[in-house]
Amino acid sequence: MWRVLLLLMLAACAAPVFNSATNEPLSAATPPNMGSRQDFMHENSIMLSFSGGGLRAAAFAHGVLTALTQVKTADGDLLDDVAMISSVSGSSLAAAHYGVYGREGLARFRREVLLADFEGGLRLSPYSPGNLSRILGGGLNAREDFSDRLDHAVFHGATFADIYRREGPDIRIHATDLYHRVPFPFIPALFSILCSDLSRYSVAEAVTASIAVPVVFAPVVVRTYPDSCPPLPPAFMAALHERRRTSRLLNAIDRALTAYRDPVRPRFIKLGDGSLTDNVAVSTLIGARLVYGTPYAPMTERDAVRVRRLLMIVADASRQPSGDWTLQEAGPGGVELALSATDAAIDAAARQAADALISMLREWQESVIAFRCSLAPADVARLGGPADWDCKDVKFSLAYLSADELDSPWRERIEVIPTRLTLDAAQVDATIEGARAGTFAIRAVREYIRGRVARDRR
């Protein structure tokens, strides 16, 4: 009884713990498309999707990026082929770092990020009265505990404008809208619906939102600005409302976008760990195919005309089930039970997304071919099509790189590494090397490399 009374007393006196919204409204100074490029695809293109999993996922993603630098091409290496990086949770550290600093940042990522003791500055124990009060008030850690450190020590005040000024790939960092239970990607298209300027938004804040495990972190807050909202094209909203009938995902997205576009009241969107809705970071790809309804989305017309080979690599660093409580009748205990339930929901959604991706890529390839073959010669020239145009010469392929499917000894070494924000050097290096080796072990990657080299020789 006294425990219940203590909890009630703490709840009564718990001060709110929250992160104030820092995103700014659109203004006359906001550049078109918030300064980002719209055309990203090359003739030979690679799309990367990085899973969640703390620093383990960040190291795994880093291993994939550095692996691509090892294969030379006629005009550089395979890293130059990367057109898009989509990330969630811990891997957003790697995606955002590459987006801000490019390939010159790869050499220092291990030292600056992977070996940083991020947990050293965090509140982690739920048992002290002060921390329990913070949990009841919104979360153990707020902006000053993590986001500010990322901003000062890693990203040095970078905003999305710094990413957009580079010629690198499209960077898509994902969080979760906790109220509407849908993915929340930090992309210009979504921020235009909020009437907010993503180009001025902190990269560190977006990464924190992507990592913000509920209870451990207070939600990151983004607000809408109805006062500065130009109306959305009526045809777009009408088409979205119509298509929502065919998809439960579209139905949820439509409800969220309608709320974001409330013309009278600003909304405060509470963001948490992106892995809650999409642990393999493919939701914006699947969602864009549904939302936009064009045969080439999320590519542009120019992208669809330019691309010949597209390889999508999904790098999944998530851990498999562990522990021995299935060998005994009792258990698991409270914390382990809660974590297991959360992991079950996350993994089930991730498996469904990965399975859907296979058929989606096939449908996407067929749609792009049909679009290309419908173009008149003048349209092909206008969109930058090559002289040796073959509308059917398009191939999309999928490579799934999973930590639990690596060859020995990498699988065993990585499987025991926890999902944490602090790892030691041996754990970091094993994860990087395992991802490097695993990248080239995938048949789809080897086939892409053979085709790339053969094309370069012609």
Explain the overall architecture.
The chain is of the alpha/beta class and 458 residues long. It has helices at residues 2-13, 54-68, 92-101, 106-114, 129-137, 147-155, 160-164, 188-194, 203-211, 234-243, 248-260, 283-292, 301-306, 334-373, 377-382, 410-415, 425-441, 443-457; strands at 44-50, 72-73, 76-77, 82-88, 170-177, 182-185, 220-223, 268-273, 309-316, 395-402. The strands form two sheets. Strands 1, 4, 5, 6, 7, 8, 9 and 10 form an eight-stranded mixed beta sheet that branches. The protein is globular, with a radius of gyration of 22 Å. Mean pLDDT is 88; it is low at 1-12.
Helix content: 40-55%
Structural class: alpha/beta
Shape: globular
Mean pLDDT figure: 88
Instruction: Give the N-to-C terminal Cα separation.
Output: 79 Å
Poorly predicted parts: 1-12
Tally of alpha and pi helices: 18
> SSE order in H/E notation?
HEHEEEHHHHHEEHHEHHEHHEHHEHHH
The count of β-strands is 10
The amount of beta strand, in percent, is 5-15%
Whole-angstrom Rg: 22 Å
